[in-house]
Design goal:
The complex is a heterodimer of chains A (about 100) and B (about 80). Chain A is of the alpha+beta class and about 100 residues long. Chain A has a single domain, classed as Glutaredoxin. Chain A is about 50% helix and about 15% strand. Chain B is globular, with a radius of gyration of 12 Å. At the A-B interface, strand 4 and helix 4 of A face helix 2 and strand 3 of B.
C-alpha cells in the first residue's frame, strides 16, 4: 500500500486523528505539544500517529494535504490545519463546535 | 542554516505584494519565528489556503530550512466589515 493510501485509511478510520511528532504523552516538538494541549483541553477523544516512527508517513503526510509541517489535524476525513490554525479555531470557539459534531 | 527575518519578509512580499508582514524572533536564535501576514488577497480564502499561500511564498523552506514558523494570517480590518 502506498503512503498516500495508508494515510487515507488512517484518516477514514478515525474521526479525530492528529499526525504528530512523538506521542500524546511525550510530544517531541513544541508545535505537536501545543496541538495535544488544545485537544486535551477540549476533552476530545482522538487518535495520534507518530510520524517519527514511520518515515514513509512522515514524508507522505506533507504531500497528502499539501501542507509542509506536522502536526496536522483531521476531523471526519477533512484536513483542519496545523497547530496555528487549531489555536485560532480554539480561541474563536470553532474547534469546540467541530469536535463536538465529530 | 537559519534564515534572517528580513529575508523571510522579502520572500513573502515578493509573492504577496500588498502584505503587511510582522515577524518576531521567538527564541533569539534566528530559527524560531512568529509571522503575522495581513493581506487583502486573503479575502474569501479558507485559513488553510491562506497559510498555504504564505508557505508557497517561502518556496518549500517551511518544515526544512525554516523549522519553526508560527503563522497567523488575516485580511485587513476594513475588508472584514
Amino acid at each position: 500500500m502506498s503512503a498516500n493510501d495508508r494515510i487515507a485509511e488512517l484518516v477514514k478510520a478515525n474521526n479525530i486523528v492528529l499526525f504528530m511528532k512523538g506521542t500524546a504523552l511525550f510530544p517531541q516538538c513544541g508545535f505537536s505539544s501545543r496541538a495535544i494541549a488544545i485537544l486535551d483541553r477540549l476533552g476530545a477523544a482522538y487518535e495520534t500517529v507518530d510520524v517519527l516512527q514511520d518515515p514513509e508517513i512522515r514524508a507522505g503526510i506533507k504531500e497528502y494535504s499539501d501542507w509542509p509541517t506536522v502536526p496536522q489535524l483531521y476531523v471526519k476525513g477533512e484536513f483542519v490545519g496545523g497547530s496555528d490554525i487549531m489555536m485560532e479555531m480554539f480561541e474563536s470557539g470553532e474547534l469546540q463546535e467541530l469536535l463536538q459534531a465529530a | 542554516m537559519p534564515m534572517a527575518a528580513p529575508e523571510i519578509e522579502r520572500l513573502i512580499k515578493d509573492a504577496i505584494p500588498d502584505a503587511e508582514v510582522t515577524i518576531r524572533d521567538l527564541a533569539g536564535d534566528g530559527d524560531h519565528y512568529a509571522a503575522r501576514v495581513v493581506s487583502a488577497s486573503f479575502a474569501g480564502m479558507s485559513r488553510i489556503k491562506q497559510h498555504q499561500t504564505v508557505y508557497a511564498a517561502l518556496g518549500g523552506r517551511v518544515g526544512g530550512e525554516l523549522h519553526a514558523l508560527q503563522l497567523e494570517t488575516a485580511v485587513p480590518q476594513s475588508e472584514n466589515i
